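Q&A log
Question type: sequence-to-structure
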Amino acid sequence: MKNCLLFLLLSIASLPLLSQDLQMHYDFRHYPTLYFQYFKNQDSGKAFIKPGSFLLKIQADLQGQKHNIGQAYVQVSQSFRCWKPNIFLSLQYSGGLGVTEPKQYSFYINNAYSVGLAYPFQWKGAWLSAVLSCKYIPYNKPTRDPMLTFYWWTAYFHYKLEFSGNCSTWTENKDHGDDYTADQQGKRIFFFGEPQMWYNFNKTLSLGTKLNLYYHIYTTDGILQAYPTAAIRFKL
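Response status: OK
Response body:
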């Protein structure tokens, strides 16, 4: 797994970054968040190994003292195929860390590795992609579970208004092999979504909003948490 991650990170350095954006969100939990995001959709249809979509997302939550970075997260994924059907093999890595006060309660966002199949398609002018994968998290007692992810992007009014985002649902073992979860049994269902809307003033500047949706991410209580943001985006 580490060798696969190294290969992906080295691949990032060789990409011609032609389309990328920087976003600043104000989360109404009273802290700003910086995003750097790069997405590329490529399928030459000629080479033996045909690259599909590539996504790199780096997130920094400025929730520490005096708005220092309190949490950082990175996600990188690549799909490819070497066959005719428009179904891609998809690889993904995500992970991060968080700093708390007092410092001894700081934490890791556990590494997660996913491999699966992605199916990109169009419907009524929208660009869509469904990904079914197996997600591996190396807890003390590792968990290997199915994950379903859905991406979408569409535009209205001659690309002035964009509606995009993604959502994922998956399961994990309740027992992570540590003292805190040792007596728990069975699986827990998770959900994460981030639908977003943008108004484009021009090719560079946009204003928008994003709704962060969490189920069993921050709490084991069976509640859906929703946190909106106000945002500005610069396409670089």
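Response note: The helical segments are 2-13.
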